[in-house]
Automatic annotation (TrEMBL):
Domain of life: Bacteria
Species this chain originates from: Streptomyces doebereineriae
Protein name: DUF2255 family protein
Region Disordered, residue ranges: 31-92
Pfam families xrefs: DUF2255 (PF10012)
Length: 210
């Protein structure tokens, strides 16, 4: 077999492999006779073909559509993200250290119209690798009401400047640790400031970088 013939056969098989019927048939000479093995009574696409004239039936493997992947199962979700997707952004150790060492964090929640509220200084604490804030004025705090409504905003602390997402925290064990974190970090300011922060457990928000 000549190199030209080998190249023709390889091109034909390549076209068949990608279901390129027209490309495969373009390599056939008008007087070529070809056969798909099998019993036509049992295998509809089996049989004899001549040149480029034969049109395979709809059930032919060359005409059959590629199998489609099954629909995604909602059980294959982790949180609000699907398995295989990029992980959600996280704080770097450097960012956590800088913010945790700062006494204050400038909080600017995003309003419903997309604009940011004027930044207000608040306290921030670290628990593990997560940052948390609370409202000193409880649920009547203006910045907190906006943050709870839109769950988006911007923070600046310790030289870190970030857009963030606010996640409400209701878990009692987490809130117990946050109580301890506030007492440990800000206890030097006295009960007049610490007690309202501990009492404001219902306003706990976790800060997630965006």
């Amino acid at each position: 077999m000549t190199s030209e013939a080998i190249a023709t056969v390889e091109a034909c098989f390549k076209a068949v492999g990608t279901r390129g019927l027209e490309r495969a048939l373009s390599h056939f000479t008008p007087d070529a006779t070809w056969t798909i093995p099998g019993d036509p009574a049992l295998t509809p696409w089996a049989g004899l073909g001549t040149g480029r004239a034969r049109t395979p039936r709809k059930s032919d493997p060359l005409r059959s559509p590629r199998p489609q992947p099954p629909p995604r199962d909602s059980s294959a979700l982790t949180g609000s993200r699907e398995i295989g997707e990029s992980p959600m952004p996280t704080w770097t150790s450097g960012e956590l250290n800088l913010i945790a060492k700062a006494d204050e964090l400038e909080m600017a929640p995003r309003r419903g119209n997309g604009t940011l509220r004027r930044p207000v200084p608040i306290w921030v604490v670290l628990d593990g690798e997560e940052l948390y804030v609370r409202s000193f004025r409880g649920t009547s705090g203006g910045w907190w009401r906006t943050a709870r409504t839109t769950h988006e905003g911007h923070i600046r602390s310790g030289g870190v400047d970030k857009d963030v997402t606010f996640v409400e925290v209701t878990d009692s064990e987490t809130n117990d640790r946050i109580d301890t974190a506030y007492r440990t970090k800000y206890g030097r300011f006295g009960d007049a400031y610490i007690n309202p922060m501990v009492a404001a457990r219902s306003t706990t928000l976790r800060l997630l970088p965006r």
